[in-house]
Structures are given as C-alpha cells and as structure tokens.
Amino acid sequence: MDPALNPFKPGSGLRPPALEGRTRQREEFDLLVVRSKRRNYDRGMVLSGLRGVGKTTLLNNLAEHAERQGWLTIGIEARPNDSGIAAVRAKLGNELALSLRRFSRTHRLRKAMDELIALAKGFTLGVGLGPANVELRIDQPAASGDIDIDLEELVEAISAVMKKQGTAFGLFIDEMQDLDGDLLGALLAVQHRASQREWPFFLIGAGLPSLPSVLADTRSYAERQFSYSTIGPLSPTDAADALAIPVREHGGAFTTDALDILVEASGGYPYFLQEFGKAIWNIAASSTFDTDDAHLAVEDGRRALDGGFFPSRWTRATDRERRYMRALALTGESNPRSGRVAAEMGLTTTSVSDIRDSAIKKGLIWAPEHGRISFTVPGMADFIRRQSTE
Ligand SMILES: Nc1ncnc2c1ncn2[C@@H]1O[C@H](COP(=O)(O)OP(=O)(O)O)[C@@H](O)[C@H]1O
Ligand SMILES: [Mg+2]
C-alpha cells in the first residue's frame, strides 16, 4: 500500500489512527468534567503503566477533552535529569501564562486574567529566590520564593476565577514519577487543600507503574487523593480494532488469520501494534492483508523495535546498569527477587543495590513489590537476550 497514506504512528505520544480500549478512563474523566461544571468536585486521576502502553496518548486525549469543555488546562512533562525545581517551576509558570492568555481570549475575561497572568509570571520569577531575596522582585506580585506558599496562592487565585465561570483548572503531568520531590510535595498539598476547600483544581498525572508508590511516599494522603487507574495492554478485540479500523477507513482489510498473527505478536501493546500496523501497510501489495504479509510484518516490525524502541532505553543505561539489566533478563522470570538478580551476577544483593537504585531512578526497571524487580518496558528481557546471543 502507498506508504504516503500509512495511518499508523509508532512513537511517543503520537495520536494513533484509532484510540482503542480506553473507554473506562475517558468516561470517568468526562464525568469529572461534567460534574465540575455543576461545582461538584471529584478527585484527580493517576494513570500508570509500562512504557508504550499509551499513557501519554491518553493523557493528551483527556487534556484536549477538558479544553474543549472550557477548562483551563496546562500540560507539563517531568524529566529525571531536570536541572531541579527551578526548570520545572519556570516551565509551569510559563505554560500557565500562555494558557491564561488563551483562556482570556476565548472567554473575554481581560481584567481578571491579566491579574492571574502577572501572578503566574511572578511564580516563574520566584525560581531560585529564597524568602530572603524577596525584595529582588519589585514589579511582580506575590512569589515568596517558597514553593508551597507560591503554588497555593496561584492555584487559589486561579480557582476563584474558574469557579465563578463554572469551569475548572486542570494540570496534566506526564512522567510524573520524575517530578522534583519538592514540587511534587507542593502540588499534592495544594490538590489536598483544593478538595477540602472546593476549589476546582485537578491534577491528572501519568507515569510508570512506580508512580502510585512515589506519590504515597511523598504525601501519606496521596492514596486517597486520586482515582488510580492501571493502563495495560489492549484486549485482543481492542487490539484488532486498533489495526483493522484505520485500514478499513482506507478501503483495505485483513484476513482473520493475518489480524490474529499481529494481535498475538503485539501482546496487545499499543506501541507494538502501531509498529506492526505500519509494517504490514508498507509490505502488503494488495488491499487485503494476508498471513504472508503478517509474518513479514512481524519480522519487519520487530526489526524496527530493535532499532528504536528498545535501544532508546538501553543506551540510556551505564555499563553497570546494563550488566544488571542483562542479569535480570537472564533470570528468565518476569519479576524475580533482587537477590536472584544479584546471584546471576555472582554478587550479593547489597553490593548491587546502588545500581539497582540508579536504574530505578532512570525508569529502566521498577519494584512491583518489595524486594522484587521488573522491566518498565514490555519485551525488554527478550530484546536483551537477543543482544547477548548475537
Ligand atoms: N489506545 C490506543 N490504541 C491504539 N494505539 C495507541 C493507543 N494508545 C497509544 N497508542 C499508540 O501507542 C504508542 C505509544 O503511546 P504512548 O502514549 O507514547 O505510550 P506511553 O506514554 O505509555 O509510553 C503510540 O504510537 C500511540 O500512537
Ligand atoms: Mg509516555
């Protein structure tokens, strides 16, 4: 088929041609939005799952929905190597000023918005200035330099305007597990305060499977503060639709067996589905995709994954972290005990605990339960085993 028309989109957060299998989360969020218009405020939402399951895509989808429904929305992505709180804080303030400006245009609320924009700018400028340096900022309101105070002040002011308008302020945070600890603590505290005081402020977060425990470790009340949802692979029916619907829209079709082969090989993982879909589209000579096409597409798709999706994590690891990951793969278990991984390396658990911790911090692996370890990337163990045998 014509590659120029290929609808499939393997890549981080790229809008898929058919967003399948997330009805529950989308309906739950829609209800939150509908209720917010009646000043009936629910908890925020947290989406967690492995890499490539479609968290970013879903988060973006929810944010767009909220924006269409008149919410003030901003989105930020945390990074593990962020140069600390200053960078994220600056990003937050700047994004907020932009959104407020957009909101001000669509809602014709010049005056109230100008005040909020000035407050958001002050928040950005408060970066790195401790309370002792407050006098450095003469022309900006607020910003004490204390993140908890500044954030609360900002959210309270914005919430007051949003509440009057019968709308809400949604802060969408991707890779939330990587958020600077101080900022995360401040955000959770403000969300907590917001629900007590009925401010229309909602945190919607997405991140790795470790995210719920990162939140609970940061603030004990975080457990009750959000509606948590695990984002997993798609069911076979949804996975089949994710492939078949876009093809059908272009007048093509799969044979049943061909579709089964791709669905099975993908394990229902959205990233893999996009990669296999892209491959079969480019390979197929006619508009009915058959089993020969499917087998070739699996081969081609795996090659593409081995050249991009997997190495993009692998190359981020240090030599020692790679040794640890190789040992984890060689155990052949999906979530072995840490001791078992150390033994595979011929070492003791304590002597490798620093590598383990740094690999966790980089989001390469995570601890599904105390003392156990697992990859954050589906299929990573197979990829590593393939590397070692070559
Ligand atoms: N529900 C879905 N149905 C079909 N494809 C999806 C779905 N969600 C995501 N995708 C596709 O999967 C890939 C990975 O999505 P992404 O949101 O980046 O995952 P994550 O953030 O969990 O790593 C992208 O190519 C995206 O288009
Ligand atoms: Mg993502």
Characterization of the model:
- Helices cover 56% and strands 9% of the residues.
- With 390 residues, the protein is of the alpha/beta class.
- It folds into three domains: 3-12 and 234-307, Helicase, Ruva Protein, domain 3; 23-230, Rossmann fold, CATH 3.40.50; 311-389, Winged helix-like DNA-binding domain superfamily/Winged helix DNA-binding domain (Arc Repressor Mutant, subunit A).
- The strands form three sheets. It has a five-stranded parallel beta sheet, sandwiched between helices. A two-stranded parallel ribbon has the order 6-7. A two-stranded antiparallel sheet has the order 8-9.
- Mean pLDDT is 91; it is low at 128-139.
- Adenosine-5'-diphosphate (ADP) is lined by residues 9-14, 16, 19-22, 49, 51-57, 242, 270-271, 273-274.
- Adenosine-5'-diphosphate (ADP) binds at residues 9-14, 16, 19-22, 49, 51-57, 242, 270-271, 273-274.
